[in-house]
Automatic annotation (TrEMBL):
It comes from the Bacteria. This is DUF4865 family protein. The lineage of its organism: Bacteria, Bacillati, Actinomycetota, Actinomycetes, Kitasatosporales. It holds the Pfam family DUF4865. InterPro entries: DUF4865.
């Protein structure tokens, strides 16, 4: 599994209905994309659920690198680049994936937590705790799915989860390092191909 995200921070007075309309028109294009586990079309609005910015930030879980590369270098990504400019695309190597208690319900919100991997930790123990933490997260009420990955360039852990309702998502994000996004659409052609548990 490979996690990927890009974010476009938009002006404070930007009409976010432009993003909603774009996703409504184009979101289906990845509903059957080869190699894609899932794409969550995510948006944050300034002043909503603690967000300081207007932002469009889709999050991807890939089950093949070939699928990811075909999207980036030969697919719909070019349309986004043409319209908004080329964003920085963050990538994390997958550590864990779990279906949640609410796996059969629609995802309405997402929570992302990014934390540095501390200096001096035993990396095997840290990774195992990320796996266990993903399992615990997936077992919470309202969780559709949960995943964890690591960027070894920045030594950063990302925890990503989809939720069925706002209250649980906002509660899960509390504590200062969690960010809540609205899910505008979910393309999930290869969700069943994402292997559960630890990714090694």
């Amino acid at each position: 599994m490979h996690a990927m995200q890009y974010e476009m921070t938009l002006p404070a007075d930007y009409g976010m209905d432009v993003i909603r309309d774009r996703v409504a028109r184009l979101g289906h294009l990845l509903d059957d994309w080869g190699g894609l586990g899932l794409k969550a079309y995510l948006m944050r609005e300034r002043g909503v659920d603690g967000s300081p910015v207007n932002q469009y930030g889709p999050f991807y879980l890939w089950h093949t690198v070939e699928g990811m590369n075909s999207f980036l270098f030969g697919g719909p990504f070019q349309g986004l680049v043409d319209d908004f400019g080329r964003p920085v695309v963050r990538q994390w190597t997958g550590l864990a994936y779990e279906e949640g208690r609410a796996a059969d319900t629609a995802a309405a919100f997402a929570v992302r937590r990014r934390t540095p991997v501390p200096e001096g930790v035993e990396l095997a123990e840290f990774a195992e705790e990320a796996v266990n933490g993903t399992r615990r997260l997936a077992d919470q009420d309202g969780v559709v799915l949960a995943a964890a990955g690591v960027d070894t360039g920045r030594w950063e852990l990302v925890r990503f989860s989809l939720w069925s309702h706002r209250e649980a998502a906002v509660s899960a994000a509390s504590g200062g390092d969690g960010e809540v996004f609205q899910v505008l659409h979910l393309s999930q052609p290869g969700r069943k191909a994402l292997s559960p548990g630890r990714q090694w």
